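Figure S7 source data.
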Amino acid sequence: MEKKKYLILTFGCQMNVHESEKLAGILEKNGYEVCTNATQADVVVFNTCAIRENAEQKIYGNIGELKNIKVAKPDMIIAVGGCMSQQNNYANEIMSKFPYVDIVFGTHNLADFEALLKKKIETGKRISSITEDETIALRDSLQIARTSGTNAWVNIMYGCNNFCTYCIVPYVRGREVSRPEKDILREVEALLKEGYKQITLLGQNVNSYRGKDEEGNEISFDKLLADIDKFDYKFRLRFMTSHPKDLSSEVIDVIAKSKHICHGIHLPIQCGSDKILASMNRKYTTEKYLKLIDEIKTKIPDVELTTDIIVGFPGETDEDFEGTLDIMRKVEYMQIFGFIYSKRKGTVAEKMADHIETKVKKDRLSRLLEVKNEIINRKTQEMLGKTYEVLVESFDEKTNTLYCSLDSGKTITVKGTKNCIGEFVDVKVTSVRKSVIYGEIVNTEDIANFKEKNFKYPIEVSILPKDQKGLKLLRENKKNQKAVNDLKSKK
Ligand code: 5AD
Ligand code: SF4
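Tokens for the predicted 5'-deoxyadenosine complex:
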């Protein structure tokens, strides 16, 4: 008998992508197999994001586009989970706005998805299940259908206690809960044995990890990193995200001495004005942040720093914004993710005076992007002629191109063969065109010995790390009216 099919559309951050791997694991355990088009799917799951308003609008648009298919295929189950569903009253809103959605579940209900799906199939009734129980997140003996190529994500903690005044995360992800160290070490070791080449530790604020070892002693993040670094495999260790207020000297020392930890650190500054940082409740000043950067650069001279910045937070003046540009130039980030402030219901900033008008926010973002490009272009030009150890992540058969990642996460493009995937190679940067970095493999004599490996890629399955891909898929469905008509005529 043909297997039933599932499609997961993922929006938002790496945490969500990884949680989609867990949802895929549940579905595969229940006999479903992945497909790439909603017209073929028996179950479609939206794993949603609430970080900014435009994420929500995109998701609503996408759910709306499924209506047509559901009419043609009434047995198809549509589930909506993740951060958007977890927000106060959203579950009701989703249920009433989209009468063809069958299941709504929250961030704490992930492990319940199997039971919810079975209940829906047995009873035919629509179900909405949102809980506030944060310990549920720790019931993570879930099977994981990994889809991220050479990289494997590993949760080390869930939730956030920081309550930055703009941020919805603490409301939809709850308070911090750390996994026991032994569970993390066991998972990492199994992944390394399986052949994964990069482990990315995930948490909203990994620096405040407070786990326990087997004797019940408290384990801090630097200790966890040092323990993972002891594994005797060839691999790269990353983590995200760090809060500057909690990145300790001990963590920097462990990174400096380690064999495996990437010299790429993502350290969101958010803003370069002390007044706005205080109003954001970030708990550091620009002076303190720059001191931390100095310490990092001194101890790890080849560090590649990346950051997040919000423009147009309530009360931000031109002068405050100039402070942000100033700090960008001082730190010389390798990558900067700039966002326009988005008002989130229930956060402290929602009620603040002096919200900034959209035009000013957009102008500031364009200015930020200009300065960002200046910095990054300069930094990439400086790479010319230098050699870096990179991880080969994927291969394009048509052009014999290998896509390799640097410590900062940036990509270098080189010519090569498929057997290089999953290997670490030395690449010399030969040219930079339109911010694409090209290079050539230096240690070519090693290539003949590389064996072909079999990693699963996001492209080949339906878990889409970029929401744009999710959108494209559904747009194709919409265009693909013929498929819908065929379904209708089959009925
Ligand atoms: N508006 C705009 N950007 C936000 N971020 C978090 N909340 C908001 C918001 N309300 C950004 C921060 C964070 C990144 C993941 O998203 O920069 O670091
Ligand atoms: Fe949001 Fe701040 Fe927590 Fe990051 S540290 S998830 S920005 S509240």
